[in-house]
Amino acid sequence: MTAEELKSGYIFLLDKPLDWTSFQAVNKMKYKLKREFDLPKKFKIGHAGTLDPRATGLLIVCCGKFTKKIPEIQDAPKEYWTEIKIGVQTESYDTEKPEILHQDISHITEEQVKEVLEKFIGEIEQKPPVYSAIKIDGERAYNLARAGEEVEMKARKTTIHYIKDVKIDFPLVSFMVGCSKGTYIRSLAHDIGQELGVGAYLTQLRRTKIGDYAIENATDQFLNNEYRFESL
């Protein structure tokens, strides 16, 4: 890898760690690349699809002229390994907020869960979580929510291509989900809980694919302080 190659265009596949924002990951990459390769101040770099801090997995970072590929990559279908907990909810629909609204799930069967999951395959209407980066009147929804303001999220159409490899160990349910751009898996977890009548929230999320790019080819070494790019 050379500075010229990076400026001409390069794609990195990162395995984003838990509790990192996508912005933090890109910033660290930018700092390391500029330091190692003496790149110009205005060196272009950006990610092709945000991952929430509480999610791990595939984060695609495009450099140089390949930043033009970002919209194309963002439009590609995604795949996630997903784990939800039923019988309880959180305000953020994930582990950022504490559990609330505990309910008895002793009457819920594995067959019921599988039937409910099947209902979500295809085009669906979905409301994004209030704790999301969507802008409302120029302000991020999560900033409004954290300030205690009422946030009304508008439903939008999205597509769930498949739900497979379902594993049930009550109260936990895990599965692989393939979906279109703009799908909120946190909202999917919440909506599954509402359909079951006992609530649910997202406990773990790992992005495994974006289009033809797969997590098997990604690394977290670029985010390690000891890593040097010369070892590539």
Automatic annotation (TrEMBL):
Annotated SUPFAM superfamilies: Pseudouridine synthase
> Which is a GO BP term held by this UniProt record?
tRNA pseudouridine synthesis
The active site lies at: 52
Which residue numbers delimit the tRNA pseudouridylate synthase B C-terminal domain? 186-217
Which CDD domains does the entry mention? PseudoU_synth_EcTruB
Recorded GO molecular functions are: RNA binding; tRNA pseudouridine(55) synthase activity
Pfam families assigned: TruB_C_2, TruB_N
- Location of the Pseudouridine synthase II N-terminal domain: 43-185
Keyword list, A-Z: Isomerase, tRNA processing
The protein's annotated catalytic reaction(s) are:
uridine(55) in tRNA = pseudouridine(55) in tRNA
E.C. number: 5.4.99.25
Q: Which domain of life is it from?
A: Bacteria
Show the InterPro entries listed in the entry.
PsdUridine_synth_cat_dom_sf, PsdUridine_synth_N, tRNA_psdUridine_synth_TruB, TruB_C
Give the family, as the similarity comment puts it: Belongs to the pseudouridine synthase TruB family. Type 1 subfamily.
Which PANTHER family does the record associate with it?
Answer: PSEUDOURIDYLATE SYNTHASE TRUB1, TRNA-PSEUDOURIDINE SYNTHASE
Q: What this chain does, per the record?
A: Responsible for synthesis of pseudouridine from uracil-55 in the psi GC loop of transfer RNAs.
Kindly give the NCBIfam families that the UniProt entry links to this protein: TruB
Please give the name of this protein: tRNA pseudouridine synthase B
What taxonomic ancestry is recorded? Bacteria, Pseudomonadati, Bacteroidota, Flavobacteriia, Flavobacteriales
Gene that codes for this? Answer: truB
